[in-house]
Amino acid sequence: MQVEDVISEVLARIKPSEEERAFVESLMDEIKAIALEAIEKLGLDVRPHFVGSLAKDTYLAGDHDVDLFLAFPPDTPLEELRSRGLELGKEIGTRLGGYEVAYAEHPYVRAVYRGVKIDLVPCYNVKSWKDVRTAVDRSILHTEWVIENLSGRNDDVRLLKRFLKGIKAYGSEIYVRGFSGYLAEILVIKYGSFLDVLEKADFILRQKIIDPGNWLKREREMAMKTVRKEGEEDKPLVVIDPVDPRRNVAANLGWERYGIFYFKAQTFLDEPSVEFFFPREKPSGDYLGELRRKGTHLVTLLFPKPELVDDILLPQLERSAKGFEKALTRENFRVLGWDYGYVGDKAFIMLELDRAERERVMIKPGPEFFTESGRDFYRKNEKVWLIGKRLYAEKRVKENVVDVIVELLGKNQVALGKQVREFIHSAGILVDYVPGELEREAYLFLSRKKWDLKG
Length: 455
Description:
Layout: H1 3-14, H2 18-42, E1 47-51, H3 53-56, E2 66-72, H4 78-95, E3 99-103, E4 107-113, E5 116-124, H5 138-149, H6 154-166, H7 181-191, H8 194-199, H9 201-207, E6 209-210, H10 215-218, H11 220-232, E7 238-239, H12 255-270, H13 287-294, E8 297-304, H14 310-330, E9 335-343, E10 346-353, E11 361-368, H15 372-380, E12 384-387, E13 390-396, H16 401-410, H17 421-425, E14 428-431, H18 439-446
Parallel strand pairs: 2-5, 6-7
Antiparallel strand pairs: 1-2, 3-4, 4-5, 8-10, 8-14, 9-10, 11-13, 12-13
């Protein structure tokens, strides 16, 4: 297909229809009216602001989540903002038909109205980056900046967002480390269009520093502090927030997700296809066949999924998988890869190892024989000999990887995520077998199809 044909077909699927736009507009009008009634009832000096993709008209068809920020005067004490903001959120949530309290930097309220998720977030009504007091205060400034600068390129943003979603490089959450929606908007504004952003994928990396707000001239010292800090941390990109020189919009973007974008952008330009935006589900296969083909072994820790949101659970599982990699490497196993996640109510950590058993004995070097620790070494070991003045012993070791893992966990010698530690300590340990619901995950992991850039 020609690239124009692909873009036309994709836009037909992701651009909201007139009917959908009318629904969104009426929904936002209703929510704002309800918010204003609640504000008046409580006698508060608060201004409601819609932020995010709905407010900027960069949302994808079918994606209607509403972010309503409740902006308090800048001189409001922080504790008062938190308490009165929560009170106001609950009042609005009640009028919307029910709510739940969620927690980020400070509590906020979540509700569902007419089938749409709504976040009600208290913040300060700031006019400048110098007035920002909490992490969410910039959101109103972000929305205003995008609306002022997008200049009718809303569909280009939609295309870039859907492309990033399709290649699994979208989302700034710590467990994704991809492109945020705001970053996608900035790139389109900076480079001109969806295709321009893709064509400059390598240039963007070489340019390294993107400064759409011209802060390097307006607030050079502050902007350079941001550049130096992010450069020291080896971030793929430094995109100085056009509304705040202290912030890198791409701070959460990881090298892996940028690398996926880097390769997929060129591949799309060479061979345009709708599948970049709407990929077919990766086919499953025989994970046992993969093990036979490679001659490796699969170790799976399986345990009940903790009641944690993904923002907390997945980083904790990642930390734990890395902890097992380090611990088993110390124990002379070679870890060829690891994966983690959950399916239904079961969480898992998978490890691919070069072997499931290790040698039965090890030669253990000891201290010099005439020291106090030398005498202890002599008493504690069965077979002991000298080479020069240093003692050596033959140490019998547990040979099966399951025994090794149990021993490591028992001695707390695996760095685990704090909030999943107790679940992992009681996990079932499976070798070269997974239950049916994990067979697909095991195959995609062992075959590398889960991350294959060419797949």
